[in-house]
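$ fold --in a.seq
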Amino acid sequence: MSDLEAEKALAAARAVDEVQNGMVVGLGTGSTANYAVRYLADRIANGLRITAVATSRMTEVLARKLAIPLTSMEGLSSIDLTIDGADEIDQRLQAIKGGGGALLRERVIAAASARVIAVVDSSKFVTRLGRFPLPVEAFPFATKFVGARLADLGGPVTLRMKDGHPFLTDQGNHILDVSLGSIADSQQTALAISDIPGVAEHGLFLSEIDTVVLAHGGMVELRHAERF
């Protein structure tokens, strides 16, 4: 296991310690979140009683394989705790998410959660967001238009592809990855993208994350958002 993989596993294990009996737990998407799903399955095998809801079909498949009890978001109005990864996160716990293409479900489940924990390795912690391309989910009929409007923000826009075809999200939408570089004003950028007709969701998560579990080396640090 590489150093970064070891950090992912360490952060995920610490986050899963926060899960308590009777909780409804949101399961994130991505390589670090997968570690959390596996550790949660271990705790369930040892007697933990929870119900889970997944942010993607990929995570659903893993959870079912590991015998984690699942429910549908359609039947829920609130979630106790969600554990998810992030592609980047800064000291204010603002993040870029969506590298796995699940940003719309991730947004909904985060909004429904009383608490959101992000689990990250040391490579994901940044002083300013923007090194990682910003994913934007667009309705397919509006992809070309949305791409042109996103280009006006000042960075190259790339349609995400898979096997020679546009990548499709679980909702059947396209992903446009916008390489903005260092984002000086994340709030203004989020508003500008949300105002583009045809955008289903974007990957700037600026107020959803309550706690980050950051692993560096063999150590784990918890940082909590300051709410004003």
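$ fold --in b.seq
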Amino acid sequence: MIDTKITRILIVDDHAHAREAIREQLSEYEDFMIVGEAKSGEEAIFLADEIEPDLILMDINMPGLDGLKTTKLIKERHPNIIIVILTVSEDSTHLFEALKQGAQGFLIKKVNPGDWYPYLKSVVSDNIPVSYDLVNEMLLTISSHPKKSEQQSAIPNPLSQREMEILKLVAKGYTNKEISDISYISEYTVKNHLKNITKKLGIKNRVHLTRHAIENGWIEP
């Protein structure tokens, strides 16, 4: 069955030519609809409140309220809006910081325009794999923090054994299709397990699921 759901997109970039380039790049896809453009973080917050897009493409470097701070503020108000950070830098520190603020993805502007669409579709469907570099970055950050006290101890693990097996494979960077092949179950079943996992934990993003599991000691480094 073909997915005909329209993804409503808000573009946020302080440069007019950059917004125009993004708009032209995505306008050829019938399942993407540009519903607004913002040239600042403040305007992005206003439009997020007004039109509640499905997806925001957020430039990381903007004067005043930058992309990271804007992402944090929007996610606090609209946790279901998907945000993908746009940048010219490949610095993994920026990626990790963006994800900490609630972003679901990270797109390098100089990437081949033809690669934008499949990547954004993967983010929207939450089937973008978690990279090993990102997991290592998480482990380094978590290990540098003071240990939790007994009163702040890790929460009990509510997941079944099968759900933990799926979560561990997600943390290793496997896609739903790869998890299906490894576990000898259908891709539909994998999606159902992930749906149950996200419902139990109240976390929708694969990266944030991985971080949650690492922080609480459910996954061994």
